[in-house]
């Protein structure tokens, strides 16, 4: 071989070695990049773990906090508020009743026709009206005039242009924190959900509504003032007498249940004809050291306007699940390059809403096409690998599974408090050796519309209780429960007047 040939050979060898080194280096960098990604996801999954023994600790913590909240005001993170609802509809109610459901920035008006002679809703109609943005920061008079006029126009359409001549009973679902004064009245404690109408705080919201209705020629009075879970429990009990509790799991979360009057220690001497009263737990504020809190939860809470409040809600409700996923994905983007140039979009708080998270989680296409579409539209990503999309789905699964299992533990906590968890003896949900059937009414989107959330929640019920007891616990979806329940309670209480 000549010198030229030798030089070419050596040059080729050098080039080959350089290419091989580059490939090895690229593979090494890729391996380390994915190792960091897997490390972040693995640590997050470990921190979110909800084994059965931990869920049972959460159950017991919920029971302890319920007892403390019933013993004294301020004794627990759970407010355990009286609703003064000590009568539930039983099917004898008859006639036409109207209801208002003020939930966030929408107002729903309902007409419910009851047939009597056993549980029977002959017909019901619902219309929804968005509250104009400028009204959420207006005045009491402006807001309640708008609500009263919305109700009046609905009734006129339903009654062929007429409004009731004699005073009729109205059910009013008011989804904001109130201090109940009676079954039909309550004082607003504070606004949430973006409302800032200061001249309503401290006022009886039923009186505000009745004054507005009277001013606008509508002769109605509030017979029942309730919040979402109480209305949902009322319609659940109307349909099935074994219903003992109701849970709302949507953007926010809350629960109520039927409690013995003599168990409400902070109101000693409280007497009811029925011997029970519905208690509004305000369970979104539940907290326990047994809850599997991560660094992402802590950061979310620190940056929220209600720091150190609603800790349970921030782990299980739709307002926050998508945001937790975003924070984990943002951390992944910080330690790797798998999201490319669009990673900076992940630094925007609440850019990933829970409905989008749920859609990605439930994408069953082979190439995870829906995941790619959502990330492209939300984060301006493109060309993501299948492996990256699988990581996103995995994070969604971890967040959803933890939320659903913790929500299930909360429900079992309620059942254990009232002796319906089947842990032994007649007082704990067994009758003559057989587990007692128990129904919990559930409303709002996370459970009703998110199938994986529902699967994980039902799975956790079985894990905690065991199959024999769990098959007697029914989680029943309630449609329009809050509004229809208010109308049913108006009917039940109008018959007592």
Automatic annotation (TrEMBL):
Family, as annotated: Belongs to the hexokinase family.
Classification of source organism: Eukaryota, Viridiplantae, Streptophyta, Embryophyta, Tracheophyta
One record GO biological process: intracellular glucose homeostasis
Catalytic activity, reaction form: a D-hexose + ATP = a D-hexose 6-phosphate + ADP + H(+); D-glucose + ATP = D-glucose 6-phosphate + ADP + H(+); D-fructose + ATP = D-fructose 6-phosphate + ADP + H(+)
Keywords associated with the record: ATP-binding, Glycolysis, Kinase, Nucleotide-binding, Transferase
InterPro entries reported in the protein's UniProt record: ATPase_NBD, Hexokinase, Hexokinase_BS, Hexokinase_C, Hexokinase_N
GO molecular function: ATP binding; D-glucose binding; glucokinase activity
Broadest EC class assigned to this enzyme: transferase
Cellular component terms per the entry's GO annotation: cytosol; mitochondrion
Protein name from the UniProt record: Phosphotransferase
Pathway per the UniProt entry: Carbohydrate metabolism; hexose metabolism; Carbohydrate degradation; glycolysis; D-glyceraldehyde 3-phosphate and glycerone phosphate from D-glucose: step 1/4
EC number, UniProt record: 2.7.1.-
Limits of the Hexokinase N-terminal domain: 42-238
Domain Hexokinase C-terminal: 245-491
Pfam families, per the entry: Hexokinase_1, Hexokinase_2
